[in-house]
UniProtKB/TrEMBL annotation:
<feature type="transmembrane region" description="Helical">
    <location>
        <begin position="7"/>
        <end position="28"/>
    </location>
</feature>
<feature type="transmembrane region" description="Helical">
    <location>
        <begin position="212"/>
        <end position="234"/>
    </location>
</feature>
<dbReference type="InterPro" id="IPR000160">
    <property type="entry name" value="GGDEF_dom"/>
</dbReference>
<feature type="transmembrane region" description="Helical">
    <location>
        <begin position="40"/>
        <end position="56"/>
    </location>
</feature>
<dbReference type="InterPro" id="IPR043128">
    <property type="entry name" value="Rev_trsase/Diguanyl_cyclase"/>
</dbReference>
<feature type="transmembrane region" description="Helical">
    <location>
        <begin position="136"/>
        <end position="158"/>
    </location>
</feature>
<feature type="transmembrane region" description="Helical">
    <location>
        <begin position="178"/>
        <end position="200"/>
    </location>
</feature>
<keyword id="KW-1133">Transmembrane helix</keyword>
<feature type="transmembrane region" description="Helical">
    <location>
        <begin position="283"/>
        <end position="305"/>
    </location>
</feature>
<dbReference type="InterPro" id="IPR052155">
    <property type="entry name" value="Biofilm_reg_signaling"/>
</dbReference>
<dbReference type="Pfam" id="PF00990">
    <property type="entry name" value="GGDEF"/>
</dbReference>
<protein>
    <submittedName>
        <fullName>EAL domain-containing protein</fullName>
    </submittedName>
</protein>
<keyword id="KW-0472">Membrane</keyword>
<dbReference type="InterPro" id="IPR029787">
    <property type="entry name" value="Nucleotide_cyclase"/>
</dbReference>
<keyword id="KW-0812">Transmembrane</keyword>
<feature type="domain" description="EAL">
    <location>
        <begin position="515"/>
        <end position="766"/>
    </location>
</feature>
<feature type="transmembrane region" description="Helical">
    <location>
        <begin position="68"/>
        <end position="86"/>
    </location>
</feature>
Length: 766
């Protein structure tokens, strides 16, 4: 029923009331008035049934089921009315009781009570349809039903003691008549109280408010006429005037209106606001209980104890009160649980980044403060800033940037232990706190940079990410160091790395000379060895017996103040300053000098940038070093590192052949990463391939093994030697051995160190 039809309904009610009043005067005789009265009652009942069925076919869920129940109850009531009309108009028995009509009449309260329960269930919002324990109490209306039963039982005891008990005992000739007589007031009392409680406890702006109010008015109207009917039967009246039957006409009419009304859309700004409940609403069920307690106390003091009916109903009310209290306890427990969960959620939100789930700045600062105060545990602080992150936002939008930040957070978590802290400080800045027994800090930083260099998938596109990192290892003996000081140092180191060319790791050391500047140190050396510059060597072993067969020379640089600058940082700085050739020549010369001075009969590997492949200066440097230190050319391997692509593959191939004519072997470093490809392998006639660590340290062992087998088999067909890089565990060693590799390099066999620190006993001397 829409708003525009409300005036029509009001007119219909006014007309019906007028007909009832006029018919009550019986201007055309009592018989005609009774016919009109019964016809109006039957028409109202059948009309309610028709309205319920028609609307139920168009709606679904709770809106359908409460209408079906009410329509079923009204159908039973209408059948009872048919039987009653037969007795009254055709058979002429007057007011027989009990009769088959009572079955139909008394079926309505049963179905109406169930309909009210379903209507109370309809309060649940659509997005909360999933079952929760609290809904069985507050949302499903069980608490309201229990309150209704408590009030009903209490009021019944009061009315039974006041008048109803004496009246029923005096007029009921047998138990069946007594049961029927008492069923009407009792059932009406139950359903009226439940309806009233639903109206009292319900929110005014609820979408089903109109349905409930109209149904409650109809139920109260029927109950009023039922009460008059019960009274007339109890006093032996032979007829019932049409005026007394007004409730039997208006009640079904209001119920029909309730069935016709369909709730509109709830206001969006009001869907989640809770309804208020005043203290008197909570106390309402217990007011009649208190009155009953006072009544029974007065009876006991007067020496006239309660009769059997009062005792039976009183015990029932006590059990209902206990059940209601249990439900209240359950509601309170669930409420406390929700409050606790809400507090936990708020606490988590207050100390964690909503995008990545990492610790936020506040939580990180708290943990860093505790770590600084705990002087007995070593710690390492790493500050990570993504390079050129703005380009990702410009290319993919902020949504794509958020996807990348979340993926970066997961990569960072995979690089540390479970007890370490990874935080997002804001934007594209992250911080990592390592506590307790630690690996070499530089190794952790290398692991993080290696993880971040693997491409990320953003909206179906692979994106390369680089990061500048500042690393701080506080000195336990340093006094008055605070978390803010450590963060400042990490931030300073990170920005120093950005100035050196990005994608770097700078370890903080106290400095008075400004940021590290390797090109300046290289120029000051004027062909000599820059201050703080040196080589470390890492063994390359034969997998069969783990015997060293070669050493790779790796450049290292430490500034005057003790700052350890990563090779990627100072090599890139030298390349950017146009000093890459001088650096390569310096490393080559130092490597040949140290290997011959140590008297080691091992091959030495030296890295050379691919951009200088084919340059005459490289070939002159190689020849000069071999002659200067009388190193056999067969013991030198030049590794082509592809930080930049080979500018001319044909010229590069010719340069490799010239080096091979000198007796020097040439290797392709980090194959499988950077710019290495099968095309490069086909074009350059190298002697050796070094498999990138990404091919041997992945997260899919079976896939890694298959790929390694394929590459090793390909190299065997091309008569190329293979060295597996980055072997750190026995499982990785087993993987590359099964794939066919015979030599390997990695932390499992030795970390980079000066020649004097290597296990020389395991290395055959020349």
């Amino acid at each position: 029923m829409t708003v525009r039809r409300y005036p029509v309904a009001a007119v219909l009610v006014v007309v019906t009331v007028a007909l009832v009043v006029v018919n009550g005067f019986a201007f055309w005789g009592d018989t005609f008035a009774l016919w009109v009265d019964d016809t109006m009652q039957l028409a109202a009942g059948v009309g309610a049934v028709v309205c319920g069925v028609l609307v139920a076919r168009r709606v679904h869920g709770h809106q359908r089921w409460w209408r079906v129940l009410v329509a079923t109850g009204m159908a039973g009531w209408s059948l009872g009315q048919c039987a009653w009309s037969w007795y009254q108009l055709v058979d002429g028995r007057g007011l027989p009781s009990p009769s088959p009509a009572d079955v139909g009449y008394l079926s309505f309260p049963v179905f109406a009570l169930a309909a009210l329960f379903v209507l109370a269930r309809a309060r649940v919002r659509p997005d909360r349809e999933r079952w929760q324990p609290a809904q069985w109490t507050a949302h499903f209306g069980v608490a309201v039903v229990l309150d209704g039963l408590i009030v009903t039982g209490s009021l019944f005891i009061l009315t039974w003691t006041a008048a109803l008990g004496q009246l029923v005992r005096a007029t009921a000739p047998d138990k069946l008549t007594w049961a029927v007589a008492i069923s009407y007031p009792l059932s009406d009392l139950v359903i009226v109280v439940v309806a009233v409680l639903l109206v009292v406890f319900d929110r005014v702006d609820r979408p089903y408010r109109t349905n409930l109010l109209l149904a409650a008015v109809g139920i109260v109207a029927l109950a009023c006429s039922d009460s008059v009917f019960a009274y007339l039967v109890s006093i032996g009246a032979e007829s019932m005037k049409p005026w007394s039957d007004g409730g039997f006409v208006l009640g079904p009419l209001f119920i029909a209106f309730a069935l016709l009304v369909t709730p509109g859309q709830r206001r969006r700004d009001d869907t989640g606001s809770p309804g208020g409940v005043d203290w008197w609403q909570l106390a309402l069920p217990y007011v009649p209980v208190t009155a009953v307690a006072l009544l029974i106390t007065a009876q006991l003091l007067a020496g006239a104890g309660p009769d059997g009916v009062e005792v039976f109903v009183g015990v029932l009310v006590v059990f209902l009160v206990l059940a209601r209290q249990l439900l209240s306890l359950l509601d309170n427990r669930l409420l406390l649980r929700r409050v606790y969960d809400g507090q936990q959620q708020l606490t988590h939100q207050a100390y964690h980044d909503p995008l990545t789930g990492l610790a936020n700045r506040a939580l990180f600062a708290d943990r860093l403060d505790r770590a600084v105060e705990s002087t007995d545990r070593p710690l390492v602080l790493i500050f990570v800033d993504l390079d050129d992150f703005k380009e990702v936002n410009d290319r993919f939008g902020h949504a794509g940037g958020d996807v990348l930040l979340h993926a970066v957070a997961q990569r960072l978590l995979s690089c540390v232990r479970a007890g370490d802290t990874v935080a997002r400080l804001g934007g594209d800045e992250f911080a990592i706190l390592l506590e307790g027994e630690l690996d070499a800090p530089q190794a952790v930083a290398d692991r993080i940079q290696g993880a971040l260099r693997r491409p990320f998938a953003v909206h179906g596109t692979l994106v390369s990410v680089r990061a500048s990192m500042g690393l701080v290892v506080p000195d336990p003996a340093e006094p008055l160091v605070t978390s803010d000081v450590l963060l400042g140092r990490a931030d300073t180191s990170m920005y120093a790395g950005k100035r050196l060319g990005k994608d770097t790791t700078v370890v903080y050391r106290p400095s008075q000379d400004g940021p590290p500047d390797f090109p300046a140190a290289l120029r000051r050396a004027a062909g000599g060895i820059p201050e703080g510059f040196g080589l470390v060597f890492q063994p390359i072993v034969r997998l069969a017996d783990e015997t060293p067969v070669a050493l790779e020379a790796l450049a290292r640089w430490t500034t005057r103040d003790g700052t350890v600058v990563s090779p990627e940082t100072f090599v890139r700085a030298a390349e950017g300053a146009g000093l890459g050739a001088e650096l390569d020549a310096l490393v080559l010369d130092l490597a040949c000098r140290e290997i011959t001075t140590a008297g080691l009969d091992l091959t030495v590997h030296v890295n050379v940038c691919a951009s200088r492949l084919g340059a005459a200066a490289l070939e002159r440097s190689v020849g000069a070093a071999l002659d200067r230190y009388r190193l056999p050319a067969s013991r030198l391997v030049v590794e082509i590192t592809e930080t930049v692509p080979v500018p001319d593959l044909a010229a590069g191939a010719a340069a490799i052949r010239r080096l091979q004519e000198l007796g020097v072997r040439v290797a392709l470093d980090d194959f499988g990463a950077g710019y290495s490809s099968l095309t490069v392998l086909h074009a350059l006639p190298v002697d050796l391939i070094k498999l990138d660590r990404a091919l041997t340290t992945g997260v899919q062992p079976e896939r890694d093994a298959a790929l390694c087998r394929s590459l090793v088999g390909l190299c065997a067909d091309l008569e190329l030697d293979v060295v597996a890089e980055g072997i750190e565990t026995a499982e990785q060693a087993s993987l590359v051995t099964r794939a066919g590799c015979t030599t390997a390099q990695g932390y499992l066999y030795g970390r980079p160190a000066p020649l004097s620190a290597l296990r020389l006993s395991a290395i055959p001397a020349g």
